[in-house]
Design goal:
Blueprint: E1 3-5, H1 15-34, H2 48-51, H3 54-69, E2 74-78, H4 85-94, E3 108-112, H5 118-128, E4 133-138, H6 145-170, E5 171-175, H7 181-189, E6 192-195, H8 209-217, H9 222-236, H10 244-257, E7 262-267, H11 273-287, E8 295-300, H12 309-314, E9 319-326, H13 353-370, E10 375-380, H14 385-406, H15 416-427, H16 433-442
Helix pairs in contact: 1-10, 1-14, 3-8, 4-8, 4-11, 9-14, 10-14, 11-14, 15-16
Length: 443
C-alpha cells in the first residue's frame, strides 16, 4: 500500500499548525464525497474504481483480442491532455525501457493529436506506412484542434488503404454518449465506441476507457490496475487522520500558505517520467485559477541533479519536494570489481546499482532538507499495474481535497479556452474574423 512520510516537513510546519490543516482537509473530504462543492457534477471518477465490472473490462479486452487476431502491429491513440497523459504514463512506466527495440506479442502503441508539430505528424506517417495499423480516437467533442487534425489524417490514410469497411474494424472512438462531431461520425460510420461519461473530466479519466483501453492494448493487466485503484478508493474515503490523501493535501496547503509556491514531484526511476507529466496536468488544471495554486513541476533524479539540483539546493526558498519512492525493483545488476580501479568504484563492487540509487535518493532528501526545502515521500511497493492504479487514485483524491482547501473549483479549466480563441482567430476560423484582425495588429 501507499505510505506517506512527512518527517521532512517537521522543521517547516509544527504539529499545531498541521492539526489545523488536517481538520480543514477532513472538511474538504466531506465536501468532496458529499457532492456539495463547486463542480460537483464532475465527481464520476470518485467512486469509479469500485463500479468497474468484469463485463466492462471484457469489453475493452475484446478490442485487444480482435486486433491481435487481425495482426495489428501499431495502434495510434489520438488525444490531448487527459485524453492521453494517463495512458502514456502507465504504458511508459510498465514497459521495458527499450520496448521499441524489444519484440512483443501485441501491437505497439504510439500517440498523436497531443501537438501540432508538422514534423511529428510527418514522421508518424512514415511509420504508419509500413505497419498494419488501427486507431483509438479520444475526444468528447471531436472538434478539439490538435486531435481533430491528427484523426483527419489517420482516418483518411486508413480509408484509402483498407477501404471504408476496413476502417470500421480499425477505428474505435472514445467519446460522448450522445453529442458531438465524433459521436455523429461514429454513428454514421459504425465505429465501435466507448463512452466518456459527462461526470468525468479529462484529467480524472485514466480509469475509464480513455486510459484503460490503450493500456490494455499495450499488453498490460487492467484488472489489476482497477483492483489497486479500488483498494485505494476505500482507504482514501475514510474520514480519518490516517488517510494518506488527507495528510498529503493538508501538508501541501500548509506549505503553500507558508510561502512555498512550487511543488516538485521527484522520481528516481526514468519509468516514472510520464507519471509526473500526468500529475502536473492533474494539479495544474485543478488548482491553478483565481490567482491561486501551487505550481506543479517535476524532476527526474539523479539526472536532473546535474541541471536543476543547484537551484533546488541554493535558490529561492519558495519550493518543496514530493519524492516517489519505489520499495522493490524486479531487475538486479551487480557492480563488478576492476583490477585497476581507475574510476575508484571498487568500494561498491558486489553492490547492486539500485543500492547506489537509494543512497543517492536519501542523500538528496537530507541535503535539500538541510538547504531549506521541505520534503515529503510517497512510497509504493513496486512499479506494476496494481500499484499504479493505487497511485492514480491517490493523487486524484488528494487533488480534489487540496483544491477545495484552496477555495477553487477542482473540475473546471476556464483559462484553457483563452489560447484556443486566439488560435482560432489567427487560423481564420469562421466566426473569429474580427478578433483575428485585432490580434494580427499586435503581432
Amino acid at each position: 500500500m501507499i505510505n506517506l512520510d512527512l518527517k521532512g516537513c517537521s522543521n517547516f510546519v509544527n504539529d499545531k499548525q498541521f492539526d489545523n490543516y488536517t481538520a480543514r482537509a477532513l472538511e474538504a473530504l466531506s465536501t468532496l464525497d458529499g457532492g456539495t462543492g463547486a463542480g460537483s457534477d464532475f465527481l464520476g471518477w470518485n467512486r469509479l474504481p469500485s463500479e468497474i465490472t468484469p463485463e466492462i473490462i471484457e469489453d475493452y479486452l475484446s478490442v485487444v483480442d480482435k486486433w491481435i487476431e487481425m495482426e495489428i502491429n501499431l495502434v495510434i491513440v489520438i488525444g490531448i491532455g487527459g485524453s492521453y497523459l494517463g495512458a502514456k504514463a502507465a504504458i511508459e512506466a510498465l514497459s521495458h525501457s527499450f520496448h521499441r527495440m524489444v519484440p512483443s506479442r501485441g501491437p505497439k502503441v504510439v500517440f498523436a493529436g497531443h501537438n501540432l508539430s508538422e514534423e511529428y505528424i510527418a514522421e508518424l506517417m512514415d511509420v504508419v506506412s509500413v505497419k498494419n495499423i488501427a486507431c483509438v480516437v479520444i475526444s468528447k467533442s471531436g472538434t478539439t484542434t490538435e486531435p481533430a487534425v491528427a484523426f483527419r489524417l489517420i482516418k483518411s490514410y486508413i480509408e484509402e488503404k483498407y477501404g471504408t469497411r476496413g476502417a470500421r474494424k480499425r477505428i474505435v472512438a472514445v467519446t460522448d454518449k450522445e453529442r458531438g462531431a465524433l459521436r455523429l461520425l461514429s454513428n454514421q460510420e459504425g465505429y465501435k465506441t466507448f463512452v466518456i461519461e459527462d461526470n468525468v473530466g479529462g484529467r480524472f479519466s485514466v480509469l475509464t476507457a480513455v486510459g484503460l483501453l490503450p493500456i490494455a492494448l499495450a499488453g498490460f493487466d487492467i484488472t489489476e490496475m482497477v483492483r489497486g485503484a479500488a483498494d485505494m478508493q476505500q482507504i482514501c474515503s475514510k474520514p480519518t487522520k490516517e488517510n494518506p490523501a488527507i495528510l498529503y493535501a493538508a501538508m501541501r496547503n500548509a506549505l503553500y500558505d507558508s510561502g512555498k509556491k512550487i511543488e516538485f514531484l521527484v522520481g528516481f526511476s526514468p519509468k516514472l517520467q510520464y507519471v509526473s507529466e500526468w500529475w502536473k496536468q492533474l494539479f495544474g488544471e485543478s488548482e491553478g485559477k483565481d490567482g491561486k495554486g501551487i505550481f506543479p513541476a517535476s524532476v527526474n533524479f539523479t539526472t536532473d541533479l546535474h541541471s536543476l539540483g543547484q537551484y533546488i539546493q541554493d535558490g529561492e526558498r519558495i519550493l518543496f519536494e514530493t519524492f516517489i519512492d519505489v520499495r522493490t525493483i524486479r531487475r538486479r545488476v551487480e557492480i563488478s570489481r576492476d583490477k585497476q580501479d581507475l574510476d575508484g568504484l571498487n568500494y561498491l563492487a558486489g553492490r547492486n546499482v539500485e543500492f547506489c540509487n537509494k543512497m543517492a535518493q536519501l542523500g538528496t532528501m537530507l541535503a535539500h532538507n538541510d538547504g531549506g526545502v521541505p520534503t515529503m515521500e510517497i512510497s509504493i511497493e513496486m512499479i506494476d499495474e496494481y500499484n499504479l492504479g493505487q497511485l492514480f487514485y491517490f493523487f486524484e483524491k488528494a487533488c480534489g481535497i487540496s483544491a477545495y482547501m484552496l477555495g477553487v473549483n477542482p473540475f473546471d479549466q476556464p483559462g484553457v479556452e483563452d489560447y484556443k480563441k486566439n488560435m482560432f482567430a489567427l487560423l481564420g476560423k469562421p466566426g473569429f474574423e474580427k478578433q483575428g484582425e485585432e490580434l494580427r495588429k499586435r503581432l
